[in-house]
Design goal:
Layout (H helix, E strand, L loop, with lengths): L1 E7 L18 H17 L5 E4 L3 H13 L8 E2 L8 H9 L7 E6 L3 H10 L11 E6 L12 E7 L1 H4 L1
Parallel strand pairs: 1-4, 2-3, 2-4
Antiparallel strand pairs: 1-5, 5-6
Helix pairs in contact: 1-2
Length: 163
């Protein structure tokens, strides 16, 4: 069994003239990210590797989780394909993971994040909200075996669910 935790970036700040990729976290995002990171630390298993979109809001969320999960900040892997990606880009990233890795975190964006959870778990989630977490158990032994419906959604959490 392999574990995959997909996290949508925390709420971003729209009150600026920045390019989309450069938007930082909003005040609410800066509150939600550490709250959700604490939940992840207390309730999910140890992370082996973290991938993040290079967008400032996604990377900032990944940094906050990394601090709480005691994951080395300099080992977060930024992957440009996680910014405006589709299911195939997720699959391409995951399929080349070292087989000794058991638990991956990926920080990314909607709508592709929600679509990927539905693809893997045969779910019908309409929207993973900002800073939402989908923790998935994959019925595979090797990352190369990942396919549609190979996952079971173990936990689905969002900041609003916890407030």
């Amino acid at each position: 069994m392999k574990l995959l935790t997909l996290v949508r970036h925390a709420k971003s700040d729209w009150d600026n003239d920045l390019y989309d990729i450069d938007r930082p976290l909003s005040k609410r995002g800066k509150i939600d990210a550490p709250m959700m990171a604490t939940i992840a630390k207390n309730e999910l298993t140890k992370v082996d590797v973290i991938f993040s979109s290079p967008a400032v809001r996604a990377y900032s969320t990944a940094l906050e989780f990394s601090k709480h999960l005691n994951y080395p900040l300099n080992e977060i892997i930024l992957d440009k394909y996680l910014y405006h990606c589709g299911i195939q880009e997720y699959m391409d990233i995951i399929e080349i993971i070292n087989q000794d890795i058991n638990h991956i975190y990926i920080f990314s964006h909607n709508p592709c994040l929600t679509n990927f959870v539905n693809f893997l778990c045969n779910e019908n989630i309409i929207n993973i909200p900002t800073c939402g977490i989908a923790h998935i158990e994959l019925n595979i032994h090797y990352w190369t075996e990942i396919i549609r419906d190979s996952g079971k959604l173990l936990r689905f959490l969002s900041p609003k669910m916890l407030k």
